[in-house]
Amino acid sequence: MAKHTIVLIPGDGIGPEVAHAAARVMEAAGLDAKWVEMPAGASAVEKGYGDVLPKETLAAITEHKVALKGPVTTPIGGGFASVNVQLRKKLNLYAAVRPVRSMPGIKTRYENVDIVVIRENTEGLYSGIENEVTAGVVTSMKVATEVACTRIAKYAFEYARSRGRKRVTSFHKANIMKLTDGMFIRCAKKVHDEAYTDIIYDELIIDAASMRLIQDPTKFDMILCENLYGDIVSDMCAALVGGLGVVPGANIGEHAAVFEAVHGSAPDIAGKNLANPLACIMSGVMMLNHIGETAVAAKIKTAYNNILAEGKCLTRDLGGTAGTTEFTAALIAHL
Ligand code: NAI
Fold first, then answer.
1. Mutation test of ligand 1: which of 12, 265, 315 has the most ligand atoms closer than 8 Å to its C-beta?
2. Domain-by-domain residue ranges, the chain?
3. Residue 16 Cα to chain centre, angstroms
4. Span from the CA of 52 to the centroid of ligand 1 (angstroms)
5. Quick check: 77 pLDDT over 90?
């Protein structure tokens, strides 16, 4: 019997290419795991499941507690509700964790970027409560609850303390959204003042914060955001370290965790062997640390750092010519 059972959700677009690459790398690095492959997204409907988020997929994650997921496509301006939003809400995966770090060999404007974005994953404008008041007038409701704001703040400060991080900065717009964003920062400050005064806590209004982040990202340590700001800030941070191909992520709940890259299904390059699988592989490394396979995680991390530093086998998004499969094979050879 395998030591771990892990749910693998290939997803849509480039999802199957990068998710299978990540599973191959982990196996080659010595992970003893049984992969339970489950569908989600448009591909779930194509496979004959009646839903973009089949109940069988939710049940498998609930049973095995950990999943590696490829991105899924969400239709714009209509169609079904986002699979990701549904998944995060149904499994209460309340904390999105996105570490954004400068990578060896990847030349960007800044060196030594090392930021962790913590995004509240279950409410805000992503509650999807939209309403047509009358013809030509629509509204979208932003939801903030004390429970969720307090829970994500605690998660951020615990994360900071357990990893020796020094500062947590909330990005907000409480000058305009006085109740919702006001609640978000009030809860964060309360959690800080009551139990985490060993960590510096501060707050920045998100528009000016975005400018400061782009001007000098090395000044930031951890960024705490509600759902929408966290989504946008994560992609902005990705641009600072080489793009969406190199930023991993985790969605953490009390009973389950789903690991996935920050990027989407990239329909423009899907099926062309052009996707950089590294973000998904790095998400896999986060998953390995989560399940206690720290030695396997370290082995993979060393291999990708070496291959990036060498700069000989890079995917197109990083200025190279290697395809998804060539990069994956080279990484396996480096293990
Ligand atoms: P995207 O992240 O899929 O793509 C943005 C740009 O980055 C594209 O030019 C794409 O080719 C490039 N890119 C993304 N990942 C890459 C990789 N691994 N290697 C090389 N290049 C990469 O964002 P977009 O186009 O806004 O969204 C496409 C679809 O993905 C939408 O349906 C969206 O809803 C969905 N999406 C899903 C997510 C998830 O499942 N976690 C997250 C974000 C978007």
1. 265
2. 1-93+247-335, 109-241
3. 17
4. 18
5. no
Percent of the chain having pLDDT more than 90? 94
Q: Is 121 in the pocket of ligand 1 (CB under 6 A)?
A: no
Q: Point out the residues that are catalytic.
A: 126, 173, 207, 231
pTM above 0.90, yes or no: yes
Q: Whose CA is nearest to atom 30 of ligand 1?
A: 264
Written as six digits, the tokens of 306 are 């070496």
Round the average pLDDT of the chain to a whole number and report it.
Answer: 97
CB distance 246 to ligand 1 below 6 Å: no
Task: Using the mean position of ligand 1's atoms as its centre, give its distance from the Cα of residue 123 in Å.
Answer: 22
Q: Which CATH number fits domain 1-93+247-335: 3.40.50.150, 3.40.50.10610, 3.40.1280.10, 3.40.718.10?
A: 3.40.718.10
Asked if residue 132 has its Cβ within 6 Å of ligand 1, the reply is no
What are the tens digits of pLDDT across the range 223-278? 999 999 999 999 999 999 999 999 999 999 999 999 999 999 999 999 999 999 99
Task: Report whether residue 84 contacts ligand 1, using a CB cutoff of 6 Å.
Answer: yes
**Alpha-carbon distance 95 to 329, whole Å?**
33
Superfamily of domain 109-241: Isopropylmalate Dehydrogenase (3.40.718.10)
Q: How far is CA 213 from its chain centroid?
A: 19
Q: Which atom of ligand 1 is nearest to the CA of 71?
A: 40
Tens of pLDDT along 79-95?
888 899 999 999 999 99
Question: b/e map of 72-91 (b: 16 or more CB within 10 Å)?
Answer: bbbeeeeeeebbbbbbbbeb
Cβ contacts of residue 86 below 8 Å, gap of 6+?
A: 53
